[in-house]
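Page 47, continued from p. 46.
Same chain as before, 143 aa.
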Amino acid sequence: MLIKILPDQVVQLWETIKYAATKVDEIDEQDLPKYLNELLHSLLNEKSQCFVRLNNNREIIALWITGFLMNTTNGEKYFQIKCVYGFKASPDEVWKRDCEVLVQFAKKENCSYVGFQSHNKRIWDIGKLIGMEEAYRVFKLRL
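Result:
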């Protein structure tokens, strides 16, 4: 089952959160301190949230970091999945249940949309599993 980590638990799980976030976001070494400082601050003041799935031994199997965005044009609230990391392989049905918990959380928070950005095809498949559709693609050229 997916559970939301409270801000006072973030410090206890910081090394695990930090590991997952840096693996997913692939932050350049020189940007890592600022990135991690901003992430920690965001989690501690609840601008971002951390959800974890535990196994029967209370080991973290999966970790999600989420946040909210506002569309200033129409005032709609957007629930953004910023990070998804699996420490162990899980069947689609388990990922689907995790997503359902996040969708219910987003509804409770009066969000109009749930979305994510990822370069990982497995994460795309998980999104499609719950009925998400591709909205756009992002291309970049490093200079």
